[in-house]
Amino acid sequence: MNLTYPSTLPRYPLRDGRFGSGPAKIRPTQLQDLVADPLRLLGTSHRQPPVRRLVGRIQEQLHELFDAPEGYEVVLGNGGSTAFWDIAAFSLVDTRAQCLDFGVFGSRFARAAAAPWLTPPDVRTAPHGELVLTEELEGIDTYAWPHNETSTGVLAPVRRVGATETAITLIDGTSAAGGTEFDARNADVYYFAPQKNFGSDAGIWIALLSPAAIDRASRIATSGRYIPDFLNLYLAIEQSRKQQTLNTPALATLMLLENQISWILEHGGLAWAAGRTRSLSTEIYDWAERSRYAAPFVTNPALRSPTNVTLEIDPRADTRTLAALLRSAGIFDTDGYVGVGRNQLRIGTYVSIDPADVGQLLQYLDVLIPHAIQSGERPTTEG
Fold first, then answer.
1. Pick from 229, 240, 179, 176: which is nearest to 206 by CA?
2. 160: burial class by Cβ within 10 Å (0-12, 13-18, 19+)?
3. CB–CB of 221/52 below 8 Å?
4. d(Cα 372, Cα 376) in Å, to the nearest integer?
5. Is 257 helix (H, G, I), strand (E, B) or coil?
6. Which residues in 314-365 belong to E strands, given as ranges?
7. Which domains does the chain have, with CATH numbers?
8. What is the 8-class DSSP label of residue 331?
9. H or E element, residue 97
10. Residues 277, 351 contacting (CB under 8 angstroms)
11. Which of 70, 179, 281, 325 could cross-link to 197 by cystine, CB 3.0-4.6 Å?
């Protein structure tokens, strides 16, 4: 894209311009701590005590951070949230799931739950930017939805469905975990990858599992159902009880994760993190409500995500142009999610974002949106 920030427009100093809603900002202090003693763990076996102690600390920290009930276990495995969708289809859904599809990621889990050995899922849908809720239904043994729909910026409640004692509740917490409060007692499986609020890298999934979920995984694992080892949740549970993963994990990912959880706990835990993300996102939503050129995509304030904000931009200003101009100014990854198909910007407001940088970003938008309208610029792709 051949667009650069115009020399005629003002510039605003940024500490850090990483506002991605996918892989997100890693605090410089995390990286400094990682490289301060690179020989400490990197390049060593994950089955030896030093790495297992690191895994154990992460498990203890997350149990504390989520105020997990007695009997809940923190389990780690190889892969990310995408891998966990297939893990759930193999190892957690007994016969049939009910899935909420109110964005791209909810729909992807619904496709995983349509595995040929399962009864087709009951899929409840809502238009992008809105929310559909679960409904207790006979024959459903698993209720599943995203806590935060990263593609649209819709936040869903974490709650039990009805009074059934035979169904479990699965929550994809990937873009909410570590930045949004929830009651862990209301979920049997709360799973996530750590590359958002937890300021880490990819390659790991983490799940907080209730005793009911552990029992379900154990029973299915011994039921005769074919389950590849990589997707066998009970194998991951057994390995996690030894403070390790089935296959070699990315140690840098674990080290960054432990540093970030420690930072959040030192500042006040999940309540502090949730207050910070809510403050960051509210500043952007309030700006959009006042703006002549932008509006929050999620029109119901009660449904708006605190961790990633989706903005509907005046159609006269091409958002590909805006994203390219912002990138040339040092502000990265504000593109809207391609599957939503709107003229949008998407801004991550994860806990690592510096509050001062949000104000600078909004100043850039105040000058760049009118500039894009007046100039009529469009990005071009070479090659």
1. 240
2. middle
3. no
4. 6
5. helix
6. 344-348
7. 28-266 (3.40.640.10), 269-375 (3.90.1150.10)
8. -
9. strand 97-101
10. yes
11. 179
The number of C-alpha atoms within 13 Å of 187 and in the hemisphere containing its C-beta is 26
Q: Find the angle CA(13)-CA(194)-CA(171) to the nearest 5 degrees.
A: 120
Kindly state the tokens that stand for 174. Answer: 């990937």
Collapsed DSSP state (helix, strand, coil) of residue 6: coil
Report angle CA 253, 257, 260 to the nearest 5 degrees. Answer: 145
User: Which of 212, 219, 162 is closest to 189 using CA atoms?
Assistant: 212
Residue that the structure tokens 């496709």 belong to: 111
Polymer length in residues for the chain: 383
Task: Indicate the pTM of the whole model.
Answer: 0.96
* 288, 294 Cβ separation under 8 angstroms: yes
Find how far residue 270's CA is from the centre of its chain.
15
CA 197/CA 273 separation, integer angstroms: 9
101 has which bridge partners? 125
Place of tokens 């169904």: 167
pLDDT (tens, 9 = 90+) of the chain, 383 residues, equals 568 999 999 999 999 999 999 899 999 999 999 988 766 798 889 999 999 999 999 999 999 999 999 999 999 999 999 999 999 999 999 999 999 999 999 999 999 999 999 999 999 999 999 999 999 999 999 999 999 999 999 999 999 987 667 899 999 999 999 999 999 999 999 999 999 999 999 899 999 999 999 999 999 999 999 999 999 999 999 999 999 999 999 999 999 999 999 999 999 999 999 999 999 999 999 999 999 999 999 999 999 999 999 999 999 999 999 999 999 999 999 999 987 878 999 999 999 999 999 999 999 999 999 999 998 878 765 43
